[in-house]
C-alpha cells in the first residue's frame, strides 16, 4: 500500500514526532511511505533523524519550498516570520501546484495529512479518495489559513475526510465542534518509546517541564509558582525547564527577577529529555492549549506524577496519577506543587499509576492503530 504523509515541516514538535514514530514502526514491507514537507527543510535534529530513516529505506522524503519565500528569506528569524505572515496566502498558492504534482507521483492509496498537509485535500477530492487528517490541537486553532479553510469545508461537505483526534477527549471536542459522526472522527493516542525512559536516584527535589518555550506553553506560570514555593520552603529544591523557543530569553530574565535563577536550569534545545526526567520528581504542564502532550507521556514513563492545566487532551493523562488545575492559576499550581512535594506516599502512588497508564501510549501500538485505519479506509 502506498501511503503519502503530508506535513508542513520536520521541525521539533508533537505532530512531527508522531510522523517520526509512524515511519519508524510501520511495517515498510506492507506500507510504502512518502513524506512530503510543504515548507521545506529546517535542519532540525528530528529532520536529520528522519533523513536517517530514509537512508535505511524506511521512507522517501520530499521537501517543497515556496519560490517567493526563498527569494525574500533573511538571516533574521523574526523578520522571516513577519514576511511569511504577510505573504502567507501567496505562499499557499505557490506551494499548492508542486504539492499536487508530488502527491500524484507518489501514487497514494491513502493520504495522511498533519497540520498544513490538509492542502492535499485538493488532490484527494479530484481523485476520489479519502483524506485522513490528524488534528494535533484544538479544532478552533486547526486549518486556520485561507486555502486550508476552503479545502476543509469541501472535504467535510463531500464526506471525503476522516479526522483523528490524539486522545479520546480530543475526539469528542472535534465531533462537537464540527458536528461530525463517529465514522468521520476517530481517536488514536499519541505514542512514545516507553522503554527509553526510567527514573534514577537523585539528591535535589526537582520539578520539570520539557516543552517548546512560547506563549502558549506558558512556562512563566511555573516560574511564578516555583518562586513562591522556594520562598516558603526551607529545603533545597530545583526547577528544570527543557527546551527553547521564542520566550526562552524572557523566561531566563524572569527567573532572574524572581530570584530563582540559581536553582532554575534552562537546558536550551537538547536531543532528548530522558536524562533530565530521570532525576526529576514532578512534571508540570502549564499550557493554555494542549492536545495530548508527548512530553507528559515521557514523564509518566519515568514514573512521575503530573500537574497539568485543564486545557484539553492532557486531562486524559492527569487523572489518578496527578492534579489538574485551572489555566494560568498561580495559586492552584503553587498548592499542587506544595501538596505533592510534601506527601511522598501520594507522590509514589501517583508515579506508579503513571507508569501503568503510559503503557497505552506506546509508539508501536500507535503505529498498529494507524495501520489498521489505513487498511479500513482503503478496503
Structural summary, described in words:
The protein has 15 helices and 13 strands. With 379 residues, it is an alpha/beta fold. Strands 3-2-1-4-5-6-7 form a seven-stranded parallel beta sheet, sandwiched between helices. A six-stranded parallel beta sheet has the order 10-9-8-11-12-13, sandwiched between helices. About 1% of the residues have low confidence.
Give helix % range.
40-55%
Figure out the total of helices: 15
Distance between the termini: 11 Å
Strand proportion: 15-25%
Would you report the number of β strands? 13
Main beta sheet: strand number and arrangement?
Answer: 7 strands, parallel
| Low-confidence parts | 67-71
Whole-angstrom Rg = 21 Å
Name the strands of the widest sheet in spatial order.
3-2-1-4-5-6-7
Helix and strand sequence: EHEHEHHHEHEHEHEEHEHEHEHEEHHH
Question: Which features would summarize this protein structure in a list?
Answer:
379 residues; alpha/beta
In short:
Helix content is 44%, strand content 17%. With 379 residues, the protein is an alpha/beta fold.
Write the layout of secondary structure elements.
Blueprint: E1 2-7, H1 14-25, E2 32-37, H2 45-55, E3 60-63, H3 67-72, H4 77-86, H5 88-106, E4 110-114, H6 121-126, E5 131-135, H7 146-157, E6 161-165, H8 168-178, E7 185-187, E8 205-210, H9 219-231, E9 237-242, H10 248-258, E10 264-268, H11 274-278, E11 282-285, H12 294-301, E12 306-309, E13 322-325, H13 330-342, H14 344-357, H15 363-378
Parallel strand pairs: 1-2, 1-4, 2-3, 4-5, 5-6, 6-7, 8-9, 8-11, 9-10, 11-12, 12-13
Amino acid at each position: 500500500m502506498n501511503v503519502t504523509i503530508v506535513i508542513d515541516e520536520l521541525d521539533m514538535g508533537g505532530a512531527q514526532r508522531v510522523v517520526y514514530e509512524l515511519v519508524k514502526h510501520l511495517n515498510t514491507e506492507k506500507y510504502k511511505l512518502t513524506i512530503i514537507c510543504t515548507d521545506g527543510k529546517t535542519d532540525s535534529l528530528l529532520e536529520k533523524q528522519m533523513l536517517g530513516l530514509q537512508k535505511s529505506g524506511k521512507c522517501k522524503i520530499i521537501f517543497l519550498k515556496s519560490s517567493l519565500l526563498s527569494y525574500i528569506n533573511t538571516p533574521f528569524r523574526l523578520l522571516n516570520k513577519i514576511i511569511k505572515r504577510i505573504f502567507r496566502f501567496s505562499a499557499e498558492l505557490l506551494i499548492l501546484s508542486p504539492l499536487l504534482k508530488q502527491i500524484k507521483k507518489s501514487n497514494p492509496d491513502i493520504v495522511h495529512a498533519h497540520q498544513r498537509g490538509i492542502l492535499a485535500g485538493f488532490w484527494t477530492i479530484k481523485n476520489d479518495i479519502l483524506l485522513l487528517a490528524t488534528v494535533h490541537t484544538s479544532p478552533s486553532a486547526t486549518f486556520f489559513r485561507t486555502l486550508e479553510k476552503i479545502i476543509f469545508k469541501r472535504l467535510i461537505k463531500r464526506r471525503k475526510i476522516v479526522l483523528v483526534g490524539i486522545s479520546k477527549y480530543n475526539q469528542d471536542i472535534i465531533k462537537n465542534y464540527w458536528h461530525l459522526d463517529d465514522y468521520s472522527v476517530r481517536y488514536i493516542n499519541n505514542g512514545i518509546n516507553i522503554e527509553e525512559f526510567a527514573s534514577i536516584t537523585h539528591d535535589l527535589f526537582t520539578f520539570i517541564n520539557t516543552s517548546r518555550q512560547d506563549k502558549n506553553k506558558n512556562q512563566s506560570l511555573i516560574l511564578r509558582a516555583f518562586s513562591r514555593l522556594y520562598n516558603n520552603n526551607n529545603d533545597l529544591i530545583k526547577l528544570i525547564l527543557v527546551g527553547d523557543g521564542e520566550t526562552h530569553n524572557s523566561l531566563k530574565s524572569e527567573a532572574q527577577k524572581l530570584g530563582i535563577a540559581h536553582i532554575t536550569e534552562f537546558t536550551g534545545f537538547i536531543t532528548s529529555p530522558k536524562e533530565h526526567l530521570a532525576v526529576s520528581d514532578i512534571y508540570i504542564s502549564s499550557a493554555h492549549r494542549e492536545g495530548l502532550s508527548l512530553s507528559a507521556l515521557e514523564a509518566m514513563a519515568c514514573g512521575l506524577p503530573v500537574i497539568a492545566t485543564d486545557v484539553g487532551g492532557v486531562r486524559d493523562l492527569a487523572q489518578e496519577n496527578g492534579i489538574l488545575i485551572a489555566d494560568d492559576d498561580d495559586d492552584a499550581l503553587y498548592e499542587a506543587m506544595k501538596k505533592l512535594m510534601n506527601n511522598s506516599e501520594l507522590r509514589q502512588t501517583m508515579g506508579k499509576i503513571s507508569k501503568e497508564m503510559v503503557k497505552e501510549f506506546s509508539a508501536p501500538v500507535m503505529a498498529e492503530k494507524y495501520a489498521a485505519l489505513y487498511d479500513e479506509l482503503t478496503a
